[in-house]
Amino acid sequence: MGAQSAGPLVVGVDSSTQSTKALVVDAVTGAVLARGQAPHTVSGGAGKESDPSQWWQALGEALDQCGDAARQVSAVSVGGQQHGLVTLDAAGAPVRPAMLWNDVRPAPQSERLIAERGGAAAWADRVGSVPGPAFTVAKWAWLRENEPAAAAATAAVRLPHDYLTERLTGEAVTDRGDASGTGWWASSTESYDAEILAHVGLDAGLLPRVALPGEAAGTVHAGHLPLPKGALVAAGTGDNMAAALGLGLRPGQPVLSLGTSGTVYAVSTHRPADPSGTVAGFADARGDWLPLACTLNCTLAVDRVAALLGRDREAVEEGGGVVMLPFLDGERTPNLPGASGLVHGLRHDTTAGQLLQAAYDGAVFTLLKALDRVLDADAAPDAPLLLIGGGARGRAWRETVRRLSGRPVVVPEAQELVALGAAAQAAGLLLEEDPAAVARRWATARGAEYEARPRDEAAWERLTATLADGEPLLRP
């Protein structure tokens, strides 16, 4: 096991798009005593799909890699990718592969649902979010329309983290955080919305119960995993809610996450309802709210541009007036599901390094533009931006964020924040403590600090103008 433990052990799981990670953590000190990781595959082509049984297999493999430490844990929690549509038959087997969050095929269904139920403002007021193509409700509507036999064969509908929690415990349980990304859980009532479910032809009996914050989902009953039978299982949550727990966020602390997708979010005590649809009015895993904006194109898009230019991803050059909006896969923020990448302002003297820097600028710009909507009016304008995700380790990403945000930046040392947040939830359940307070005791947000730089207003204005003027090209 390596390090000695001071307290009981817990497991935090991060089941993401690409892999499942498991951390065995000391519930008192936050020391990571063992870790494991196993990959999954995502289909190519128009749809983004995965076989849920792969996630279960990967969880087993990740726990096996944790060795004896996993066999000594007292509590478990699963954080998982949000929005995915998992359809199960009467025997609990997947009817078809899960449709993942980044599957934009339901764009037409999303637009139709918004129009049919009173428009964007009505959805934001009732549900807390305007259901874009990522939302589970749009995916269910797409399935009923395009694969009616699969929809008819569905005896249970789950989110990815619910699926794993149910296989661990035998109980159909979700939490308010992940449920708030479905489009059929209303933040106004904190319950499933009977009218929306009726509108999309989904029986509420097919859905899991929503556990209260701090409530257990059950206990481990699956015998073949290297976990003690009877260990407590927390309700789990969505990956963004888990990361917020993992950082021990207090209201008003802004987070910018640079991964396959980019996200900006902050904990709020006010229920969000953004009629523009830019901000998803998610619930958090504790009882507060987690207004969040997500972009589809982040590190993968910039890495693709670097590869096209034949340059290392750090080989950027400042200067020049070129602008790039790297919407290589369509985009969610702004909502342009049919968009492709756009370059404007090329000159004879534009260098490859400037073009690569423009890709970084375009990705960061859309996130920072959304951050203005995410933060409450009373949030401090000079609060440090917590920079997390794989991109946070890259100098080019960090310096672009500093140059375009004008804020100080902190890069937490702790990695694997989704798994750490799930571990904090498990520890909170076990020790009967607030999981965010547990994470603060673990000092997970401590890291390198970078002072604010003056914001590059000229680049900001070029990006704003290009996005506005280029919209007819971005909306084919």
Structure commentary:
The protein is an alpha/beta fold and 476 residues long. It contains 16 helices and 24 strands. The strands form seven sheets. Strands 1, 2, 3, 5, 13, 14 and 15 form a seven-stranded mixed beta sheet that branches. Strand 1 and strand 2 (19-26) form a beta hairpin. The model has no long low-confidence stretch (mean pLDDT 95).
Topology, pairings included?
Elements: E1 9-15, E2 19-26, E3 32-39, E4 49-50, H1 52-65, E5 73-80, E6 86-88, E7 98-99, H2 107-116, H3 120-127, H4 136-146, H5 148-152, E8 156-158, H6 160-169, E9 173-175, H7 176-179, E10 185-186, E11 191-192, H8 194-199, E12 209-211, E13 216-219, E14 232-234, E15 237-238, H9 239-246, E16 255-258, E17 262-265, E18 280-283, E19 289-295, H10 299-309, E20 323-325, E21 342-344, H11 352-374, E22 385-388, H12 395-405, E23 409-412, H13 417-431, H14 435-441, E24 447-450, H15 457-469, H16 471-474
Parallel strand pairs: 1-5, 5-14, 5-15, 9-12, 16-22, 22-23
Antiparallel strand pairs: 1-2, 2-3, 4-7, 6-8, 10-11, 13-14, 16-17, 17-19, 18-19, 20-21, 23-24
